[in-house]
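BUG-253 | component: ligand-complex export | severity: low

The export step for A2H jobs runs without errors, but we want the raw record kept on the ticket for reference. Input record follows.
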Amino acid sequence: EGVIPQEYTLIKMEVVPPFPSKLVALEGRKVYLAAATLRPETMYGQTNSWVLPDGKYGAFEINENEVFILTEKAALNLAYQRLSRFPEKPTCLAELTGHDLIGLPLRSPLAYNEIIYTLPMLSVLTDKGTGIVTSVPSDSPDDFMALQDLKLKPAFRAKFGVKDEWVLPFDIIPIISTSEYGDRSAEKICTEMKIKSQNEREKLDAAKKVIYKGGFYEGVMTVGEYAGMRVQEAKSLIRSKLLELGQAVVYSE
Ligand code: A2H
């Protein structure tokens, strides 16, 4: 953890009822997986969300009718940022693991896909952000490789009880174009660097660095309300809109 606080946008990904048995206690409320992102302008390209299978999560009361699913650490931070039913005291309505969340159908802001599913990614850290990550395989090497692992390896899907229909219909959605890496920059850099799986941590970290600069400084939005605008300018406009519409909240740690 650094000295400079990191400011994330938490995307409210609505869990679509009917709820599974583990979530029955939450029936009648609005329940969200709260995904921490630094790239709110990429939300058009969401194909799924990520959880750590063995990660510990909880369903925490944000106010009378809204519930966020995230880690306990994030719930405590939120409670100190006026995002809990009772000030500075998170209330947990259900204890969950990543396994309980895999397969949950979600409706997520700006996503081109009306419904996306919750899937396992092994590199999710539970001590960073909320432990929930939204997946944008067009622009994130981690997301691209984790989705690729699930698509190409039936045994990997089986291991986590992932159904074909949660993964196979979801293709990359191009959303940002750059001169050097085109509009599927994550796929291009992973191919160039010959990255074989989501486990190649060092290569993936290098890949992220390379395309982040290009995407941010030269990237142009190709979809949505700000199509044609540079990412640099569109980013804050898209973020403000999500916050204004109540589809996202600010979270720092
Ligand atoms: B970003 P930083 Cl398109 N574990 O959002 C692992 N990764 C996590 C996480 C966690 N607990 N919480 C957030 N993240 C991811 C979009 C995105 C992101 C794109 C491209 C790059 C990118 C879609 N996934 O991040 O270590 C989230 O993925 C590249 C750094 O706090 C979040 O933004 O700097 C980013 O890592 C935050 O990482």
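Assignee comment: Attached the raw record above. The chain has a mean pLDDT of 96.
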